[in-house]
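[Help] Beginner question about ligand-bound structures

Sorry if this is basic. My supervisor gave me a protein sequence and a SMILES string for adenosine-5'-triphosphate and asked me to "get the holo structure". I don't really know what that means in practice or what format the answer should be in. Inputs are pasted below exactly as I got them.
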Amino acid sequence: MAPLLTVEHLTKRFGGLTAVNDVSFTVEEGDFLGIIGPNGAGKTTLFNLITGFLPPDAGEVRFKDQPITGWKAYKISRLGMTRTFQITKPFGHLDVKENVVVAALQTSSTLREARERAEGVLRFVGLESYRDRSITHLPMGLKKKLELAKALATRPSLLFLDEVMGGLASDEVQDMMEVLRKVRESGVTLIMIEHVLQAITQLSERLLVLHHGAKLAHGSTREVIRDPEVVEAYLGEVDPDAVH
Ligand SMILES: Nc1ncnc2c1ncn2[C@@H]1O[C@H](COP(=O)(O)OP(=O)(O)OP(=O)(O)O)[C@@H](O)[C@H]1O
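Answer (accepted):
No worries, everyone starts somewhere. Holo just means with the ligand present. The predicted complex, written as structure tokens, is below.
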């Protein structure tokens, strides 16, 4: 069977800077892939290229055995690939539940279906008691959960997470990790950019390391975090026992 996602020779230049340089990898259904690398390594740009938020200069993306290179994000989302954003972008004038309903509407045929789905997702991520709250003063941990809830409301089969742990306190990181384990158990394939190494090494079985836009390493988490080039470029000291 073909992989769920195939990325081949993906490249993006911004003027003289090659932000993503000839990156290829595949993801099988059920995988949990972590993407790590120093600031500016090209991780978010790679997400943008795959999920339709930026067109690549070269390379191809196939999802569910269909070429989707250059497709718009909304069309890709309807096919079952969704992403979260590093900087959360909720609608400030809508409450928590309404934000999730709007996201669910992208892939629902009726408002009723979108509302029901939103209720289910809010329960799933543990936001049901905040459903009627204004999002303006939500703490960061809940904003990140809302971002996740919005993505889940589109019913993705492949979900891209861009630093969902960023800015969270350690108890919030634990909480988010539990939710992500549940997402995974529900059958969603996950690709996650994260600087919180303890979280990403515990959750992901495989890691892709980007450095200066290019693939520095790709393999099992255990192997990659021991790779001397990866340690040199990014990791420094990581406790090898604290991994998946
Ligand atoms: N729209 C843009 N125009 C010009 N340069 C850009 C643009 N987007 C990203 N870049 C540059 O491309 C490079 C890769 O950026 P990107 O945000 O993908 O890195 P990253 O690995 O996600 O970084 P971080 O870990 O800090 O989020 C950086 O040098 C960045 O300044």
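A couple of things worth pointing out: The pocket of adenosine-5'-triphosphate is lined by residues 14, 17, 19, 37, 39-45 (CB under 6 Å). Residues 45 and 151 are 19 Å apart (CA to CA). Feel free to follow up in the thread.
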